[in-house]
Request: fold
Amino acid sequence: MNGQEMYNEVVKLATVKPTPQMAKLLPMAFENALAKVGNDEVRTYFWGDIKRSSTKLSGIFTFVLTSQKLIMSQKNLMSSTVDSVFLNNITNISKSKSIGFSKLDLETINHSYSIASNEKLIDRVIDLVNEIKSAPVKSSVDSFEQIKKLKELLDMGAITQVEFDAKKKELL
Reply:
C-alpha cells in the first residue's frame, strides 16, 4: 500500500472532508510515515489534528500505527515532520470528547498528545494499542532454549539441517 491508497481509504471514513490543499499534502505525509515503518507490521492508519502536545507538534498529521510504534507525519508546502512514539513508552491512552469532535489522548514517558479525529478510528487505535501492549513478549531466553533443544534433535538425526535452519531463523 502506498500513501495515496492510504489517503483514499481514510477519506472514506472522515467526518470532516480535507481541503484541496490537504488532499495534495496528506498522501505525501503518509508516504513519509511509511518510510519509517521498516520491518514493522502496519496495523492501521488515519489522519487527525494534533490539538495539544507537550512537543512542538501541532496541526494536521497522518498517523500510521505499527506493531511497535505510532508514526506521526506532517507535510507542509515547505517542510516535512516525522516523529514516532514507541508503544512500550505509552503510559496512558484514552478517548475524550469535545464539541464537535473526539480526541485521542496519549501520554508517554516524556510527552503527551491530544489528537482530534474520527471517533471510530480513535476507538480502533485504542483497542489495537491495548492489544499490542498486552500481547505476551517473546523472551530471547525461550528462543535460545528452543534452539538448543532443536540442535540436540539435529545431532540425534531426528530433524534435518534444513528443518533446523528454518526453525532457528523463525525463532530469531
Notes: The two ends are 27 Å apart (CA to CA). The chain has a mean pLDDT of 87. The first strand starts at residue 42 and ends at 53.
